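Hi everyone,

Forwarding the result from last night's run.
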Amino acid sequence: MDAITNMSNAEGAALVGTPAAACVTSLPSQEAAAPVPAEAPLAMPVQSLYSASGTRRRPQRHESLRSGLGTWVARLVVFGGSMGLTAYGASEMYGVVSVGGVTPLEWALLVLFVANFSWIAIACTSALLGFLWLLFMPPKEPAVPTVLKERTAIVMPIYNEAPGRVFATLQAIYEEVQATGFGASFDWFFLSDTTNADIFVAEEQAFLALRARLGTQAPIYYRHRPKNSARKAGNIADFVTRWGGAYAHMVVLDADSLMTGRAILGLAAAMEADPDAGIIQTLPLIINRNTLFARVQQFAARIYGPVIAAGLAAWMGRDGNYWGHNAIIRIRAFADHCGLPTLRGRPPFGGHVLSHDFVEAALIRRAGYAVYMLPALDGSYEESPPSLIDLSARDRRWCQGNLQHLRILPAAGLHWASRQHLATGIMAYLASPLWMAQICVGIILVFQASYIRPEYFTSEFTLFPAWPRFDAQRSLELFSFTMTILLLPKLFGLLLALLKGKTRRGSGGAIRLIISALFEVVLSALLAPIMMLIQTGHVMHFAFGFDTGWDPQRRDDGSIPFGAIARRHRSHVAMGLLMLTAGLRISPSLVAWMSPTIAGLVMAIFVSWASAQLSIGMFMRRLGLLVTPEEKEKPSVVQRANTLVRDFASNGDAPPDSIALIHSDPAFRQIHEAFLPLAARRKRGDIAPDWALAEAKLEDAESMAEASAWLTPRERMAVLQDQTLIAKLVRLP
């Protein structure tokens, strides 16, 4: 393993600095023309959401009585406890508003409070369960296998990503697995859905360089789809239907995933040992983050994440969920039962299933396979958005996908736990407009009490007047109780980190760990109302029928211009100032109650700008704050990946001009054309507009430079994917 991590930068540069022509001469022509292995097709029928046809699979191994009983006890603690907390909170809230009778607006406030409180109550009881489990009966990390009998594919779907990052990452993971001695059990696939012509060509160059570096015997393959239909779900389905028959399992990675060789071996061994398992999920920790915003996320995931994940794993048992990456899947079961249908109607609620992972977990569980998490399996990592604006862009996609699950929630035959997972994902975004509505109703009630003369006796006959009054003391107690429930999961995570010497020392010691946690709580409190308005906007956007795109995620730490931040958050600042002004005119006590929300909105531009700064994040790191154990002592796979990424950057990570490269480099052009899939026979009269326009422009152009300037991004892709158009391009001077 040390031999891997200590490889020199010069050796890494051999991968990234190799010119395309040199890569060509270093590869035998037959290998250069074979970016993918021979196909092993596997049928993947589309599943019905309206009928659970087919026989539910019977488990080959029955769950032990102790394990099954433990899961149901955990569910009783989580759901029974959250119901008890919610009932108490509802009772107290009723006591707050029922002084002198309950008006319709007060009933609305009560209902909204219960909906929001139930959301945080279940998170609290689940975290409590995870805390107790990890404290008194911590699960053991799976043992390293001595033998693997079945073959596993490692697949990384990519979409307009920086090639240097993804190819360096996969090489680091590949080297880790090879060092374990089990490399022969795994094949590796880049599954490209890239639609940017320059990035497409850069991916091919990076793949050639990777083969030149690792040797043609390395079972690493690259496949580019001409059309990215059904997005990531369609990308994975394309792999399964073309090569799934050659493998028993697949480990699905994201473009920002990293996993140690031990973690991948642990997943493969766990799947082989459990013939009833359909999906086994790991807990990815966040790494390599440097901006203040991302470092706060990284710290929170490392300190609070294990407690939350352990609680989820305990009550989910074998009826768990799938998060779309850093997990292993039984391919035959996935192919037989996870073919996703196209939802009726137009987007945002119709069309292809966007947040496919939850649905695939529900369908494979419906078929009788187990889905569960291994929270004790270390060595699973991912990255996170570097700023609030980047998080908002990702959340927009996730919001549409999760709200689409409203169509899937009533699907026939789903396990009740699967419906709970879907409902949780939906509520993750509906909670924001519900919170917003609760704030608005509260403001109206205070305004009514301050400015509108109450009608004590209405036209309806009653013996008692309707007094618009609140129990101030009880409301203060309820506020304190709510804040306690909200913050307890963080406290459980902090306590566990303080009790674990390795985590405590790796986070800078007890004092720095506590200061970091307090800082995270304050910054999260300021960010929460901003995210409330952002997510409320997303929900309303989709509620009115607007679709969203699926742009690639920004993963670097580059700062966003202040002007862009100000434009994005000016409406949030305006809302905060409006609430502040209205609150001061209505009742100064209202401002005091709402001060956390108002402060976050009024400071939205500054908070978003400051949290996106790389310099502030690195300053916190120098102070020893927001530090994680994996940052202080980087795992070998992280070190190796970072070295390779730096080598890519030092050799120029900017993608080439694809049209110019294809025109000027005959050796690379030959390989590019060999990599193209066989074109399906075109039906006469069926002419793609992009292809036709590209052909017309190539015919009309008098030089390559002129054609390159005329071609749109879609037309450039049409040229690169068609040998006829490539030939026309090459003939231009």
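The first strand starts at residue 152 and ends at 158.

Cheers,
N.
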